[in-house]
Specification:
Elements: E1 5-7, E2 17-19, H1 26-36, E3 45-52, E4 59-62, E5 81-90, H2 99-108, H3 123-139, H4 150-156, E6 167-172, E7 177-184, H5 187-209
Parallel strand pairs: 2-3
Antiparallel strand pairs: 1-2, 3-4, 5-7, 6-7
Length: 214
């Protein structure tokens, strides 16, 4: 699909916004216009067909920058990602009903704001993460005040799912092989780190350039 719409093309302030879809909401257009006025955006903003209003920046937008880094353009889920793992099973080996499979997953994986009652992750997982995290908190001790029982909480949240659009899915491919797909988030620790550095970036930008629309 080629470019369907170009915003800001004839405006004095802001780079062009090239939209690769006809289906775009007015509030997303307004957010894109605000983004295009940021002085460090390079050349133009590209907008993909999945465009919709985001927190801060528009979801589905590509924002090239010059001499600047945006620590979190959309939201604060810094560890958000997806992974798919193929199992040794095929569709014929699955039971007719997956209710027991779903129940077992739900019993093992806390969701939403929940976490494990005690630390279940292995030391081989915890130690490398703890060392890297300590380098951050040594430089930014304010992070420790943003999460109750900081070290215990992030460790207990390993192996949990979170809320929102995060999920665990058992699915089949075109060869009827079984996969487990996971969309996970960064939980409380990721939210704290994200908010902390976003606020630093806001202060830095405001001291140099003034108010940021989004």
């Amino acid at each position: 699909m080629g470019i369907q719409l170009i915003l800001n093309e004839n405006e004095k302030h802001g780079v062009p916004v090239k939209v690769y879809t006809k289906d775009i909401a007015p509030e997303a257009i307004e957010q894109l216009r605000n983004m295009a006025k940021l002085e460090f955006v390079h050349s133009h903003i590209a907008v993909m067909p999945d465009v919709h209003l985001g927190k801060g920046a528009t979801v589905g937008s590509v924002i090239p920058t010059k001499s600047a880094i945006i620590p979190a353009a959309v939201g604060v889920d810094i560890g958000c990602g997806m992974n798919a793992v193929r199992l040794s099973l095929t569709a014929s080996e699955l039971p007719d009903s997956l209710r027991r499979v779903r129940t077992a997953i739900e019993q093992q994986v806390p969701v939403g704001f929940n976490m494990h009652n005690q630390i279940t992750a292995k030391a081989s997982t915890l130690d490398p993460l703890g060392k890297r995290l300590k380098r951050i908190t040594d430089k930014h001790p304010g992070l420790l005040k943003m999460l109750k029982s900081f070290d215990q909480t992030w460790a207990k949240q390993l192996g949990t799912l979170g809320g929102g659009n995060h999920f665990i899915e058992v699915c089949l491919d075109e060869n009827n092989e079984v996969w487990v797909m996971l969309h996970s988030g960064s939980r409380g620790i990721g939210n704290c780190i994200g908010r902390y550095f976003i606020n630093l970036a806001k202060k830095e930008h405001q001291s140099r350039f003034g108010h940021v629309p989004d």
